[in-house]
Amino acid sequence: MLISRPRRNRKSAAIRDLVQETTLSVNDFIFPMFVMEGSGIKSEIKSMPNIYRFSIDTLLEEIKEVSDLGIKSICLFPNYPEAKKDKYATESHNSETLYLKALSEIKDKFPHIALMTDVAMDPYSSDGHDGLVENGEILNDETLDILGKMALAQARAGADIIGPSDMMDGRIGYIREILDDEGFTNVSIMSYSVKYASAFYGPFRDALDSAPKFGDKKTYQMNPANVREALIEGQLDVAEGADFLMVKPAFSYLDVIKTMADNFDLPIAAYNVSGEYAMIKAAAQNGWLDGDKAMLEMLLSIKRAGAKIILSYFAKEFAILKNH
Ligand code: PBG
Q: Which phi and psi (to 5°) does residue 4 adopt?
């Protein structure tokens, strides 16, 4: 005789809903978006179907749409032409620059949106690296100075959350101090605490035209084989004043998300990166996977692993599904 029958808790949709442990909400998402120069532009990224680079005018229209769907947080990344890039990422803290202009226009039109930024040199660097390059090496402490200027310029433009994605040592504390000294004590920092040197960033680098001109990012981004190092990064970021800790990528690193959630009390975010998005889109376009179902399962697994916040290119599609 079978006493325990786990299937009883799966026998109807109503009971399955009662016992469901993890749920997704639009509140969990930050939608990454791309801005470029020009006007009237909506240019699809080839390796990311349904994701676009917008000029500021069309970006504002898109944010209106996204906001009407219930999404309250976005993260903006810029695409700059090669001509605007240099060794020192000078354009990143030029007060007239496209990115800062976009931030202040967004904040002006959508004050209720939580606006997250990206702090790293790669969109503006002629070397395509996140830090300053000298003789083939990425210099840590010299990079901090540039990141500090970038973060401060973004705070001035109206950023709510600064997102250092560069993986230099000490940058959270360095940026926190500059923000506080300048009176931006209420500007948050979401640290890309645990960011791996991953193959899954490929489509994003297409979107930004930001692939490294030489070498790889392995001297600053983490080795995908390691998880203990994640705790070291997390401890430092907590001590340096981070408000959120992020794991990136998400789907191949669910154990890392769980480790971070088990060890830290700050909210854990996970970045469901471009390559994870591209995989599902490509398979769905081929008829090999049900795109919506695969998306929901991927997002749910990231939340189940311990991420409270998910940065995802699926955010808008998720919100549309939820609204119907
Ligand atoms: C670089 C940066 C990257 C992403 C966000 N910021 C790529 C990289 O480190 O080369 C990747 C995001 C994605 O793949 O969706 N500072």
A: -95, 120
pLDDT of residue 280: 98
Q: How far does the centroid of ligand 1 lie from the alpha carbon of residue 278, in Å?
A: 14
Taking 50 as the pLDDT cut, the residues of the chain under it are: none
The C-alpha atoms of residue 22 and residue 257 are separated, in whole angstroms, by: 15
**Nearest alpha carbon to residue 163 among 98, 89, 77:** 77
Q: What pLDDT score was predicted for residue 323?
A: 85
Residue 248 bears catalytic tag: yes
Question: In the numeric block, which tokens belong to residue 130?
Answer: 């996140």
Residue partners of 222: CB distance under 8 A and separation at least 6: 167, 194, 195, 196, 197, 229, 230, 233
d(CA 278, CA 29): 18
* pLDDT tens profile 42-52: 999 999 999 99
Nearest CA-CA partner of 166 in 258, 92, 55, 257: 92
- 40, 322 contact by CB (below 8 A): no
SS3 breakdown of the chain: % helix, strand, coil, rounded to 5? Answer: 45, 20, 35
Report which residue type is found at 162.
Answer: I
Distance (Å) of CA 223 to CA 102, 143, 264: 34, 21, 21
Cβ atoms within 10 Å, residue 16: 11
Catalytic residue list contains 195: yes
DSSP conformational letter for 267: P
Q: Write the CB contacts of 38 (distance below 8 Å, at least 6 apart in sequence).
A: 55
Residue nearest to atom 14 of ligand 1 (CA): 201
What beta strand segments (E) does 3-102 contain?
A: 29-36, 42-45, 48-54, 73-79
For the chain, the straight-line distance linking the first and the last C-alpha, in angstroms and rounded, comes to 44
Our mutation pick for probing the ligand 1 site, out of 204, 217, 252, 274, counting the most ligand atoms within 8 A of Cβ, is 204
Cβ-contact 208, 33 below 8 angstroms: no
